[in-house]
Amino acid sequence: MEFSPLAVMLLLISLIQVSHPQEKPKPFLRVNPQSSVYTGDTITLICELQSTGWEFHWFKYNQYMQRLNTVVTDTNTLNMTVNNAEETVYMCLARRQSMMGEIYTELSDPVKITEREERPRADLSVSPQSWLTEGDSVTLSCEVTDSSTNWTFSWFTAVPYRDGLTQIKNNHGYIMHVELFSDSSRGSGGKYTLSPAALNHTGVYMCRGERGEPVLHTQYSNPQPLWITGESPPVSLIINPSRTQHFTKDSLSLSCEDQSKSTGWTVRQYTYSERVLDCSRWGSFTGSTCK
């Protein structure tokens, strides 16, 4: 029995395919952001293959390699919200139909992500001081307690409530409304300078760090008040009795005086909780003296 040249060629091709099965492609899995993330953040998984027409299977495992979740999508990108604070492993593979049946890729190499419960916090400080005279220069510095780098910073001021503002709780539990500086970008490196300081710069300032894509934000910083006053004669705080150490329940008086002995000055107390208290809250006021 003779075979036609075409039949011989087809037979040879089929034998080659049987004896040399096609190697399975292997996808490459990328995760953004590629470092630590925090509960509530969104991460993006990308399962990369050279060819198209695949259906993608996504696998999520805990640190003990117990499967937590499986998702199937028609695209090679998946956004997921982090909902557990632990180390998590992600993998993917792809599947498609062909004339020979279903074809599966190999499983991608695992990608490990550390998911943390509490996001890093931004710390805000001021130099040289928070009480300033109009025309002075002051620098606000924002740092992140997390050891990671590549943070950029945004700057905010506390404002009275109106629609569209961001509402936050400060580190003392008080609700505040904040607004982004119109020129916030000039402090993106972590320092924002007011020079010269003006009366309308008086207010409460906050900052926040961000990095990565999608963007990861820190917590808002501690609120930092700034008081800018007009030019005034130098005054002295007189403490009576004049000694370096005072004891609980001792009596003392605080007087505010300038060189001309003018009257009308007020003594106020500034507390570590960013509050200013009049003398009437903790003593009695006579002239320019609080006792």
Automatic annotation (TrEMBL):
This protein's record includes keyword Disulfide bond: yes
Signal peptide: 1-21
Swiss-Prot/TrEMBL GO biological process terms: cell surface receptor signaling pathway; immune response
Keywords carried by this UniProt record: Disulfide bond, Immunoglobulin domain, Signal
Domain (Ig-like) ranges: 25-108, 120-208
Gene3D superfamilies: Immunoglobulins
One protein family per Pfam: Ig_3
GO molecular function, one term: transmembrane signaling receptor activity
Any one cellular-component term (Gene Ontology): external side of plasma membrane
Full protein name: Ig-like domain-containing protein
